[in-house]
Specification:
- By secondary structure, the protein is α/β, with parallel strands linked by helices.
- It has one domain: NAD(P)-binding Rossmann-like Domain (Rossmann fold).
- 39% of the residues lie in helices and 19% in strands.
- The longest helix is centred in the N-terminal third of the chain and has 22 residues.
- The protein binds nicotinamide-adenine-dinucleotide.
Length: 346
């Protein structure tokens, strides 16, 4: 089997590539990346050493990958920040996330390859989520379940309304989903869409606008300043990247079971954490540290927890909790301390 991973040197893409190669040594894995994300370049040597083919290219240029052959395409290249486009860079965001997606779908059609698309919980509008009722405890918001489609004590399902504003990043992902639907309907493309909330684990070069678990762990570890925006009671469920691998593995090998569907996937309520709770976990593991409080950012969500009911019914559920994931991240930072310090310092 030949598996082509766009964004293959990024956090998710490289983790999937490494896990696939470890489990299926005979598979040909191609990691394709333009190395735009700070830190992705550090993964290339490891990918090559493991026998994964690395191709330096750009999804915006179809000629960069038109000669490659593959059976499955995992679309994991993106400008993945919710803040993307706020201070310029809108053309890059749209060219990569949308035109890059179209180039990838065209390549998949030509190769008769199956597509797995990494979408995001950010397709759900901010107002829809922030206007729900929440109860506020000492450390977190909890969802007060109203009679609203897609909302339950388990979190948010695929039935949550899509009506409203969602950030430019979310808009590129939702548009991509609609384009994929048309390719499926009009041209017979085989595709699966996974909408995930926060994905975390070793190998993520976290920054303020994306990858907060790693950012927190790294700033504690390297003793860098940290700020909580708002009350710190905002809650996210955390999907360990190795749990994501288990799902992608299942989907690649039982594609028919999942195809033409979109799934909310995440750590779920049992693997959810607020910033205040994460901060306490870091204090317990790494010692005390003063954290500043700043005004809430406009694009923040009070709460996001994935209701995994639909994907659970097809045989997948996450196994790792937030503590496991945080410990994996800290182990990775400790092991690669010298290389990582300058990245997390900037
Ligand atoms: N990490 C998360 O919490 C999360 C959550 C939901 C969805 N996702 C989605 O998962 C995918 C992977 O995210 P990630 O966290 O690994 O991000 P990442 O930034 O670590 O990886 C993305 C990779 O894409 C590459 N890239 C960017 N523009 C490119 C281009 N024009 N051509 C080729 N490569 C390009 C980057 O260099 C980077 O290595 C993205 O589609 C993202 O939207 C991520």
């Amino acid at each position: 089997m030949r598996i082509f991973i766009t964004g293959g040197a990024g956090f998710v893409g490289s983790n999937l590539a490494v896990n696939l190669k470890a489990k299926y040594p005979n598979y040909h894995i191609i990691a394709f990346d333009n190395l735009r994300r700070r830190g992705s370049e550090l993964n290339v040597k490891n990918l090559r050493e493991l026998g994964i083919e690395f191709v330096h290219g750009d999804v915006r240029n179809s000629e960069d990958f038109e000669s490659l052959e593959f059976d499955v395409l995992i679309e994991a290249s993106a400008e993945p920040s919710v803040m993307a486009g706020m201070n310029g860079g809108r053309k890059y965001l749209i060219d990569t996330n949308l035109n890059g997606l179209v180039n990838s779908l065209e390549a998949a059609l030509k190769q008769r390859a199956k597509v797995i698309f990494l979408s995001t919980s950010r397709v759900y509008p901010m107002e829809v989520i922030n206007s729900l009722n929440y109860e506020e405890s000492q450390t977190r918001y909890s969802l007060h379940v109203n009679n609203i489609a897609g909302v339950s004590e388990r979190g948010f399902s695929e039935k949550l309304s899509l009506d409203g504003y969602r950030t430019l990043y979310g808009a590129t992902k939702l548009s991509s989903e609609y384009i994929i639907d048309e390719y499926v309907h009009m041209f017979g493309l085989k595709a699966i869409i996974n909408r995930s909330g926060v994905i975390a684990g070793a190998g993520q070069f976290g920054k303020v606008d994306q990858g907060f678990l790693t950012l927190w762990a790294a700033n504690y570890y390297f003793n860098k300043p940290l700020s909580i925006f708002g009350s710190g009671k905002q809650v996210r469920d955390i999907l360990n990247v190795n749990d994501l691998f288990d799902l992608i593995d299942l989907q690649i090998h039982a594609f028919d079971k999942f195809e033409k569907e979109r799934f909310n996937i995440g750590g779920g309520l049992d693997s959810s954490v607020s910033l205040l709770e994460l901060d306490t976990m870091c204090k317990t593991l790494l010692g005390d540290k003063k954290v500043a409080f700043q005004e809430l950012r406009g694009l923040d969500l009070k709460y996001y927890v994935s209701d995994n009911t639909k994907i659970n019914s097809l045989g997948w559920q996450p196994k790792r909790n937030v503590t496991n994931t945080l410990k994996e991240i800290l182990f990775w930072i400790e092991k690669n301390e010298k290389e990582l310090e300058w990245i997390f310092a900037s």
